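Entry:
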Amino acid sequence: MSKQPRKQRKRFYNAPLHLKRKFLSAHLASDIMVRYRRRSIPVVKGDMVKIMRGDFAGQTGKVRKVNVREGTVEIEGITITKADGKKVSRPIHASNLLITKLNLADPWRRRKIGEKLSEEEKMMIEKEAEETKEKIEEIKEEAKEETKEGVNESS
């Protein structure tokens, strides 16, 4: 392992994607940090985050997209206006974010978070995940009903 900054930068820029994903970690809010006994975790789509640095500091939103190749995160509601008037999502680096609510829909992620926790705490994570799944299913059902109503009205 080299100490030279130029070689460190080269390793960072030329790293494979499965390692670059780990570079996209963000700190956890204090209440989550205490609950999961971790300081940071890689950001995934669906996490609720607060922007801590930059022009949009203080704003919160849901992660819309994680671009591992470029090392950026896109957040719902965080947009900039281009010269032609078109609004585009503003990419933000994960180090400028604070995770306020985790997306626990992925069983692999739940398992990785729960590795250092007691059985009671693991059960709490599973319970939270079930509640999240139920909310997602309700939203999907409502969306289906709305589309059916829209189709019936246009016919």
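The radius of gyration is 19 Å.
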